[in-house]
Amino acid sequence: APPGGPCLRLQVLGRCLAAVAAAHAWLTGRAGRYLAAWALPQFLLLTQGDLQVLKAETEQLVLQVSGTFPEPGDTDGDTPPEPSPVSPWELQLCRQIHEAANNIQLFSRDVLRMFSTSCKRLSAEIFDQTMPLGRHWRLGPRAELPSTPSAYAAAAVQAVLGQVLQGAQALPRDAQAPTLARVTTAFLEAWMDHILTHRIKFR
């Protein structure tokens, strides 16, 4: 049986569950607020820094709980099942801890997708407001190719990619590349969608 009396074990499991659930609520709440405010340095540090630490610590906690409070095993043949050393209340708390920890895992997996979706939406709004249409792209027969970026493109890059790049500088190098890749892809997809939607022709 797990060490300690039943009341002590229930107290420990209850506190473990409260800690994991609080971590998940704190992560998702802060991330949502930072993203809504477009506070990218804070958002990226939270989701690519704090989240990774809490995820690793939660994984270790789940391993400890699973080892200390094993699920009742199946029996083979006619061997009568042995009484479980873990009470039903303890098993319920263990399963809730697993579920709360899994929520952190899911959030860690989905957070970059959520971020890139927000970046794509912001990029689309900028292109809708600033990208010229129609005759702007019809060059005369002797027109020279532009030597500088269009003003709308420079503004869009700075508003989205520039801010993400600035925010990502505080991250470890191995965390910068996935973040920048997802955001750049989202930015270019929004640009292409805008061009196709408005049937802009460059000629």
From TrEMBL:
Q: Which residues form the signal peptide?
A: 1-22
Keyword Signal set for record: yes
Q: Where is this region: Disordered?
A: 67-87
InterPro entries reported in the protein's UniProt record: CCDC142, CCDC142_C
For this UniProt record, give its keywords in alphabetical order, as a comma-separated list: Signal
Task: Tell me the ranges covered by the Coiled-coil protein 142 C-terminal domain, including all copies.
Answer: 10-202
Q: Which PANTHER family match?
A: COILED-COIL DOMAIN-CONTAINING PROTEIN 142
Q: What protein name applies here?
A: CC142 protein
Taxonomic lineage = Eukaryota, Metazoa, Chordata, Craniata, Vertebrata
Tell me what gene encodes this.
Answer: Ccdc142
